[in-house]
Amino acid sequence: MGYGSGELIIRSYNAQNDRVRVEGLESICEVGPADKPFLFTDTLGDPICRIKNSPIYNMLVAELGGQLVGVIQGTIKLVTLHKPPKNVAKVGYILGLRVAPAYRRHGIGSRLVTKLEEWFVACDVDYTYMATEKDNEASYKLFVNKLGYVKFRTPAILVNPVNHHRSSQISSNFKLTKLKIEEAESLYRKYLSSTEFFPIDMGNILRNKLSLGTWVSYPKGETWGKIPTSWAMLSVWNSGELFKLRLGNVPISCFMYTKSSQLIQKFLPCFKLPSIPDFFNPFGFYFIYGVYGEGPLYGKLVKSLCNFVHNMASSKPKDCKVIVTEIGGNDTRSKLHIPHRKSMSCSEDLWCIKSLKNEDRKSLHKLTTMPPTRALFVDPREV
């Protein structure tokens, strides 16, 4: 395809030559539909921050007439994936596709995806997948209608703002314990290793400096030495250490309401009105992952853990303004008890998948039509 300004060149990212230009491109590219409020990403001077904690990663840039006009990122890992006859698959994840606004609708996005898929094939990847908002029409058309991806799962993204002026209540009937890394890894492998997208290198995630820890909650009077009758667990990842977010295209009325609520909370705390965080300046967030538990008190226990995470975040006003949790779309029992603001959350994120090997294409239909497991592991390294 002719681009009017010369030949389109797609190559690997070079930090020395491309860092500043990629940051500039990121600053003018919104995340999400352009007709709604969208997010800007501040990579804090490191364009590969969102992928560098993955086992294998790559970043491609598109150049046209000496100008950087597009980028894409990809990661590779081994996960459990329910597909006969084997349970483990090598999957490639696509994220961070950006094309400069002036160069969109010229096929640059599809060229970047195709080149990244070629790298996946060279690395013997079985499947490649991506995530997008269900109403992101441009992304859906590109991946599903043009590039052959199919709908796979629809996780729920739950977002809870952090109130830095008020603590969340934790029931005195429950006990919270922070697990050692080895104990947490053992529990995850025992209870989640058969769920979809459970990473084989789980230990590396838990040992990463961005992982703040794993906690369990169980009824007082019982001991953790023997698995209690009811229990819940989760881990916390500090995404704000990697990059910051900022909200754009927000109505002025929303902006004024946010500022007024903050002033009321600051000077008239006795009113106890819910404070809305300032999303117009760069902010970080905590990501809750690995939510699991058993027993009749599971819901109350997981809520207690989430309240604990909120209180932990509220003590870090500069680091965390929201807490994000992503769970399987049919994990209704968790969704009912994980605190979240409905207006800020997404009930259906969209994961799409594609087979890169001929022998796997027959099983792809079965994979995408079979009922999903209740738990879906979302890797915090790919948020």
Radius of gyration based on Cα positions: 22 Å
CATH-derived architecture of the largest domain = 3-Layer(aba) Sandwich
CATH topology of the largest domain: Aminopeptidase
Largest sheet: 7 strands, mixed
Q: What oligomerization state is this entry in?
A: single chain
Distance between the termini: 33 Å
Number of strands: 15
Molecular shape: globular
Low-confidence stretches: 250-273
* The CATH class of the largest domain: Alpha Beta
Q: How many structural domains does the protein architecture include? A: 2
| SSE arrangement, N to C | EHEEEEHEHEEEHHEEEHEHEHEH
Amount of beta strand: 25-35%
Describe the secondary-structure layout:
Elements: E1 8-12, H1 15-28, E2 38-42, E3 56-64, E4 67-80, E5 88-99, H2 108-122, E6 127-133, H3 137-146, E7 150-153, E8 156-161, E9 174-178, H4 181-192, H5 202-207, E10 211-219, E11 231-238, E12 244-248, H6 252-267, E13 285-294, H7 298-314, E14 322-327, H8 332-337, E15 349-355, H9 358-369
Parallel strand pairs: 5-6, 13-14
Antiparallel strand pairs: 1-3, 2-12, 3-4, 4-5, 6-15, 7-15, 8-14, 9-10, 10-11, 11-13
Summarize the structure in words.
- By secondary structure, the chain is α+β, with helices and mostly antiparallel strands.
- The protein has 2 domains: 6-152 and 347-367, 3-Layer(aba) Sandwich (Aminopeptidase); 157-243 and 251-342, Aminopeptidase (3-Layer(aba) Sandwich), CATH 3.40.630.
- It is 28% helix and 29% strand.
- It is built from 9 helices and 15 strands.
- It has helices spanning 15-28, 108-122, 137-146, 181-192, 202-207, 252-267, 298-314, 332-337, 358-369, and strands at residues 8-12, 38-42, 56-64, 67-80, 88-99, 127-133, 150-153, 156-161, 174-178, 211-219, 231-238, 244-248, 285-294, 322-327, 349-355.
- The strands form 3 sheets. The chain has a 7-stranded mixed beta sheet, sandwiched between helices.
- The chain is globular and about 70 Å long.
- The two termini are 33 Å apart.
- Residues 250-273 have low confidence and may be disordered.
